């Protein structure tokens, strides 16, 4: 079963996806981490970030791996652990080039679908999971929040990681990423058809999680009184 969670930066989707997956005992896929890993790879390779062919080649050639678990995600680039590095402001400031590359998106969506097929039950989050990657997902969510609130959340994360940034810088980055995410010609951020929309501006993560669990139960995807997925009956063998 595929559960998609899409939304802009700082909408709470990463934390929600991770906690939801832990509660259901299934892995989660942070697709932003894939775009971030390719961004870091492109920066390190020194390629022109406007060169579509070069970016596509980086996404194809470099070895970036995600170790998925219900409570963690570790990212490696050519064998090196880059889990923290991909969250830096330096990477933040350049993801738009990679996210705007049709070739990179094609490769990453393909990888995401392969992960979905291999793993089966998955909570996956990003900008295009319910639209481009998994249009047939069993259930889709779209999280949003006021830009100031999203910047505040990102600021806390960055400060905790030891970055020296101000609220104004983070807000400018959030606004810029909103603009480029929704205006880019290829796969712009949009609400997937049939998605359940949640405004998280005034909600805690626990409240968002409870709302999602309620919606999963109402849809018959999670067992009543339990935090377990309803497993589909085994397919008849011919
Ligand atoms: O979610 P996160 O902020 O880690 O994503 C990093 C960047 O990757 C975003 O700014 C967005 O441009 C891009 N992205 C995307 N499609 C996804 C996930 C992330 O374009 N499915």
Structural class by SSE content: alpha/beta
Which compounds are bound in this model?
A: cytidine-5'-monophosphate
- Spatial sequence of strands, sheet with the most strands: 2-6-1-7-8
Measured distance between first and last alpha carbons: 23 Å
CATH fold assignment: Rossmann fold
- Number of structural units classed as domains: 1
How is the main sheet built?
Answer: 5 strands, parallel
Unreliable stretches (pLDDT < 50, length at least 5) are none
Counting DSSP H or I runs of 4 or more residues, the number of helices is 10
Q: Rg, please?
A: 18 Å
Share in β-strands: 5-15%
Give the strand tally.
8
By CATH, the architecture is named 3-Layer(aba) Sandwich
CATH homologous superfamily assignment? P-loop containing nucleotide triphosphate hydrolases
Explain the overall architecture.
The model has no long low-confidence stretch (mean pLDDT 92). This protein has a five-stranded parallel sheet with strand order 2-6-1-7-8, with helices on both faces. Strands 3-4-5 form a three-stranded antiparallel sheet, covered by helices on one side. The chain has a single domain (2-218), classed as 3-Layer(aba) Sandwich (Rossmann fold). The chain contains ten helices and eight strands. 39% of the residues are buried. 48% of the residues lie in helices and 15% in strands. The chain is of the alpha/beta class and 238 residues long. It has helices spanning 13-24, 31-45, 52-61, 89-92, 95-99, 102-119, 129-133, 147-160, 167-183, 205-218, and strands at residues 2-6, 28-30, 64-68, 73-77, 80-81, 122-126, 139-144, 196-199. The structure holds cytidine-5'-monophosphate.
